[in-house]
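Lab notebook page, bench 4
Experiment: in silico fold of construct C2
Operator: M.H.
Input chain length: 446 residues
Purpose: comparison with the prior construct
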Amino acid sequence: MIRSQRVAWAVALVVASLAGGARADDGAPADSALRRYLGGLSDSTDTYFGRSAAPLDTAGLDSALAFGLAHPGHRVGRRQLGFELIPTFRFNRADGPVYGGTVGVGSAPDAGSVTGRASYAVGQRDWIGGASYDKSLTRGDAMWKLDVSGGRRTQIIDRESSDKTLASVRALLSGSDSRHYMREAGFTVSLERETAVWRAKAGFADEVQKPLSTTTTWSLMGNRADPEFNLGARHGRMRELSYEVGVQLPVVPVFLQTEYQTAGDAIGSDFEYRRYRVTASGDWSTGPSVSIVPQVTYGRLTGEAIPQAAFYLGGSHTLRSVVGSSMGGTGLTLARVDLIGHDDVLALLHVPHPDAFPIHLGAFAATGATWGVDPYGGPTVPGIDWPNREDWLHEAGVQVLYRPGIPETDGYVRISYAQPLGPTDRGGRWSFTYTRALDLVDRIAR
């Protein structure tokens, strides 16, 4: 009885976390095969929700627009500030249970919005939290976005780590928690400009980073945390300038993204390094029923090889046959291709089910490697700008996907099985994640 209550509670936590913790992203361009497929969500939405999903009645909107253009200074009443209060819960082996809440106040886009966060980490016996301000502004065909954030928080050492919400759920349920954590205290500020075909972002961070130790090894199912140790970050002040550019290439359905971060004594940082990563993702169709989604990334770190600036391999965002973030180095390269079926296999098999629960099948193959200084303290892997041939890892696998359509149209709950290829002592691995079809880049949201 107790175990069934735990499972029911955990399922509710997963649903609530997915609804509140995902990042908005509209996915591939409108002329792509994947976008056409994802756009079909509206059909099943209309069937499932009926009249509540009916299109907006626009009668009278033209007259209101005409009046607004003729009277640009006119305002109807006073804009009310929005207010929301959301309780939060997280869990990891470094902090243990983390109880808290988020308070949001704002009237975006006029004045922006302010969000406050406060939580208590039971394992660390420490209060964490802070505040952030964000404002979006549209000018012509471009959107500008300002983000300012400050406070104390727990951060994942692997910067490219994804699936953070379900990682917390897995850690709580079974003790499976492959991420490594550190404490950050300080502030960040970023300014972003986005159009329909490109995005540019610049930011500055001033953070004191320090290591965290494992405080909690239990889980609801009785398993111990795996792994039990937490990789230690280098203690010091990190002052970093960051730049990011993403562009949708003309003619070919390929999105190219470059990222660059630099820290050094010239801007008052205790660490001195240069870090860059280049990623390309595509969306190609082989017909009306299948999309091919290739992704390629390459990253290099020069200067101080601190763990919080290294590149990591393993997990849902890189190689699924490797335990998440279990390999690392100062260099990373990865190539992966996913095949995503568009058809609902339950419908093809004439299995009765609600239209809101489509199930899709897919397959994938990937190859990747890390080299250079090992953040886990192992021997340095040979290679400067490219890994040695014997250090490459290969895999292939199958996947079952459920696309809920909310909060992201290209978001999937995915169960996958990855089988290593070639001479290796690694076995096949199952994984359960929530991810996006194009998970190595931040696509243009417009």
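Observations: The CA atoms of residues 93 and 216 lie 5 Å apart. Residues 2-42+81-436 form a domain with the Porin fold (CATH 2.40.160.50).
Next step: discuss at group meeting.
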